[in-house]
Structure formats: structure tokens, C-alpha cells
Design a protein that fits this description.
Helix content of chain B: 25-40%
Oligomer: heterodimer
Strand content of chain A: 25-35%
CATH topology of chain B: Udp-n-acetylmuramoylalanyl-d-glutamate--2,6- Diaminopimelate Ligase, Chain: A, domain 1
Radius of gyration of chain A: 15 Å
Bound molecules: adenosine-5'-triphosphate, magnesium ion
Largest interface: A-B, 26 and 20 residues
CATH superfamily of chain B: HprK N-terminal domain-like
Number of helices of chain A: 5
Number of strands of chain B: 8
Shape of chain A: globular
Shape of chain B: elongated
Distance between the termini of chain B: 47 Å
Structural class of chain A: alpha+beta
Chain lengths: ~150, ~140
């Protein structure tokens, strides 16, 4: 029953492109809303993907966001080619940020992104290799699957 | 004293009734110009939050509230959309750029602009009884 996939999508994210940043997440959000996912679930997915997308734009050259949804659960994998994270434990702390002044002027660099993603997900995995890239896997339980 | 056997109801000091302002009232209180959504001024606002860093909005805001911000790029509107912010107020005479305005139009999010500082804009709304639309989390949550 858990393999009744509703969506299987893939999006490309371009590093440094702040004008486009957030496009993927807002698009995903409207798709999920239309399908009729619970509003709370839609919001959690939107916030997680948005934060992850912005991080790729800020800290990587390029990335791919893979999105899989069934009525029961949503899995989002964001993988990038970029600078990677040296100390993941540090990066996961609220307020920790290496954002530049320029990024701050654009409204980023609170150091809340990764903790935000974690808080909004039911399962959260992060791996990273310095100089190579970062991979996030976010799972959000969508419901008991009773609605279709 | 109440007669024996009678239940005396102790009136609890009740919280003041929640204040709801229309967007039109917000506009007047803050002396705003309406940049997007002139036809949506009847919209009801129950609470507000203020931030210049977008992750703070995503972390602390409660859906369907008003956002006051000094950030004028398209990300402010995109963040509002993601966080389900009902309407935006730009402060300190800042004007959102063309990209932000276009996105707000597309998403149907009203945009107001006020000359007030963040402190005064928030203060005026607070004085009118508008609630804070931010979740407070404990440190170890
Ligand atoms: N995809 C990534 N590649 C390389 N480094 C990253 C990546 N994502 C996060 N980081 C590092 O982890 C730090 C914390 O990330 P987080 O998203 O929590 O905060 P931020 O991006 O600095 O600010 P905010 O998300 O609040 O705007 C970043 O400052 C950066 O150093
Ligand atoms: Mg971030």
C-alpha cells in the first residue's frame, strides 16, 4: 500500500541564482495543495524545501531536488555539488552561519535554515564532504493514507 | 458570603478578547500606501510578526498573520508565500522591487508600505491590541 506513488519529480537548482531561489519550493507547494495534502503537511514540506533550496543557491554550484510522495509519506532528497560542510554538528546549531554580508542583506544568514528543516521533518539525514557537496534526506509523514 | 451548599463561581481574570483588525485599519494605523491588493483591504488580521531575516519568519511565524519587514527583494514575498503570510508591510519607507511586487500580485498577497520605523510600526499595532503571531519555543525543544 505504501508504494502507491503520487508524485516522483526532479528539479535542478542553480547555485548563486538568487532571483530563482525558492521557485522549486513554491511550485511544489502549489502542486501538493492541489492534490489535497493536509495544510500542515504542505507547510512543512514548503519550509523544508525552501530552506534547502536557498542553501544550495548560497553555498553550492548546483544541486538536484528529488521529490517523492505517496498518500502516506513524502521523501525529499537534496543533493548538491559545492563547498560541503566541515562541521555538521556546528552547522545544525541555531544561529550558526557562515553567510556573507551580501547574503545577510538579502535576508539570509540567521543560521536557522538547517534546524528549521530538521524541526519540520519526521526523519532527517545530512551527510557532507568538504569540497564535494552535501546531501539532505527529509521524510515527512503525510498521514494514515486513508484519504486518496 | 454564599449560602451553604451553593457553588460560588470564581470569575477568572479573563484575557482580553482577541483583537481583529482589517487590513484597512492596519493601513490607517501605520499610514500606509497600498502597493498591491487595494481590493483586499477588507481582509481580517489577527496577529503580526516582524523580521528582516527570512529564516526567522519561517521558524517563528504563525500562518495567516501579517509580516512587517525591511527586506525588499523577491525573497520577502517568496518567504511570505511559503510561510503562508496573509499580507506584507514594508517599513522605513522602503519599497519592494519590481520582482517582489510582481510575485505578490501573482500570489495574491497584499503589499503595504509605511514610512514608520520597525519599532514604531510594531508599537502602534501592539497598542491597538494586535497579537503577536510568533511561536515561542523553549531552548531545548
Ligand atoms: N548545502 C550546503 N553546502 C555547504 N554548506 C552549507 C550548506 N547548507 C548549509 N551549509 C553551512 O551550514 C551553515 C548553517 O546553515 P543554515 O541553513 O542553518 O543557516 P544559514 O544558511 O547560514 O542561514 P539561514 O538559513 O537562517 O538563512 C551555513 O552558514 C553554511 O556554512
Ligand atoms: Mg540556510
Amino acid at each position: 500500500m505504501s508504494d502507491d506513488s503520487l508524485l516522483d519529480l526532479e528539479f535542478e537548482i542553480i547555485g548563486g541564482d538568487f532571483n530563482q531561489a525558492g521557485r522549486v519550493s513554491t511550485k511544489l507547494k502549489s502542486i501538493l495543495k492541489e492534490i489535497g495534502f493536509d495544510a500542515q503537511v504542505v507547510r512543512r514540506v514548503a519550509i523544508s524545501t525552501y530552506e534547502a533550496e536557498i542553501n544550495v543557491v548560497m553555498y553550492a554550484r548546483r544541486g538536484v531536488l528529488r521529490f517523492k510522495a505517496s498518500p502516506q509519506k513524502i521523501v525529499i532528497i537534496i543533493e548538491d555539488e559545492g563547498q560541503g560542510i566541515e562541521d555538521i554538528e556546528e552547522a545544525m546549531k541555531e544561529g550558526y552561519s557562515t553567510a556573507t554580508d551580501e547574503m545577510r542583506e538579502m535576508g539570509f544568514g540567521a543560521g536557522m535554515g538547517l534546524p528549521n528543516i530538521k524541526r519540520n521533518s519526521d526523519q532527517f539525514e545530512i551527510t557532507s564532504e568538504v569540497g564535494k557537496g552535501t546531501r539532505l534526506e527529509v521524510t515527512i509523514i503525510a498521514g494514515d493514507g486513508s484519504k486518496s | 458570603m454564599a449560602p451553604k451548599g451553593e457553588v460560588v463561581e470564581v470569575k477568572k481574570k479573563s484575557e482580553p478578547a482577541p483583537v481583529i483588525l482589517t487590513l484597512r485599519e492596519v493601513k490607517e494605523i501605520l499610514g500606509c500606501e497600498v502597493l498591491v491588493g487595494k481590493e483586499q483591504l477588507g481582509m481580517e488580521i489577527w496577529g503580526a510578526c516582524a523580521a528582516d531575516l527570512m529564516s526567522d519568519v519561517l521558524a517563528f511565524s504563525i500562518p495567516d498573520s501579517l509580516l512587517l519587514t525591511g527586506l525588499v527583494n523577491a525573497q520577502s514575498v517568496r518567504t511570505a508565500d511559503v510561510a503562508e503570510i496573509k499580507a506584507l508591510v514594508y517599513i522605513r519607507g522602503k519599497r519592494p522591487n519590481a520582482g517582489a511586487l510582481q510575485l505578490a500580485q501573482e500570489k495574491g498577497i497584499p503589499v503595504l508600505a509605511s514610512e514608520l520605523t520597525m519599532y514604531e510600526a510594531c508599537g502602534r499595532l501592539y497598542l491597538r491590541g494586535l497579537k503577536s503571531a510568533a511561536t515561542i519555543r523553549s531552548k531545548n525543544e
